[in-house]
Amino acid sequence: MGKVVMNASVSVDGFIAAENDDPGPLFAWLVSGGVPLDDSGVLNVSQASYDHIRPYWDQIGATIAGRHVFDITDGWDGKPPSGIDHVVVVTHRPAPEGWDPAAPFHFVHGVEAAVAKAKELAGDRMVEVAAGDVGGQVLAAGLVDEVRMDVVPVVFGSGKRYFGSVEAQHLLAGPDVVVQGNRVLHLRYRVRL
After folding, report:
1. DSSP letters of the chain?
2. In the chain, is it the N or the C terminus that has fewer CB atoms within a 10 Å radius of its CB?
3. C-alpha distances in angstroms, 128 versus 13, 62, 142, 143?
4. Residue ranges of the domains in the chain?
């Protein structure tokens, strides 16, 4: 089975969005370079960011996100983001009315069930967990192997926290990867058990 990785772009003070879910400048680094990150024609990053992010994206077999993220993105119109094969949505509610059952989205109750389903779908590939409340719950459950952060030079002051509402201490090793891109610092930490 592949490892479980928590990931997001984050402000220097630890927020992934403002209180109103606006990510502000957190994704500016994805359009601030000259190297295409995918085939969209939109995402262009520095060479250093490409060399770090593209191999990571290629390893992801499934992504776990919360229902709130699913709702504010309109379910990515039924197409998982960044070429991901499957999205597992942690929710207490059923799929939206009229949702295409053939879309590669799986609605489950609870983070343990989400990780189990995502691992099944990903096989030997990586499971990515979106940071925020769901990511924090997966970390608190001891199911995260690695934490990745794309740290952007902005201070929000308040907003949606990278680790959600995690209250207990969790030790990380490293960082074992530090990559400077254009207006972003990519960090990778292994979770210590």
Report:
1. ---EEEEEEEETTSEEE-TTS--GGGGGGGGSSSEESSTTSS-EE-HHHHHHHHHHHHHEEEEEEEHHHHHHTGGGGGS-GGG-SEEEEE-SSPSPTT--TTSSEEEESSHHHHHHHHHHHHTTSEEEEETTHHHHHHHHTT---EEEEEEES---SSSEETTTT--S---EEEEEEEEEETTEEEEEEEEP-
2. C
3. 22, 6, 15, 11
4. 4-29+62-191
User: What predicted TM-score, i.e. pTM, was given to this entire model?
Assistant: 0.93
- Does the 4-29+62-191 domain belong in CATH 3.40.50.10400? no
Cβ atoms of 25 and 154 within 8 Å: the answer is yes
DSSP string covering 53-64: HHHHHHHEEEEE
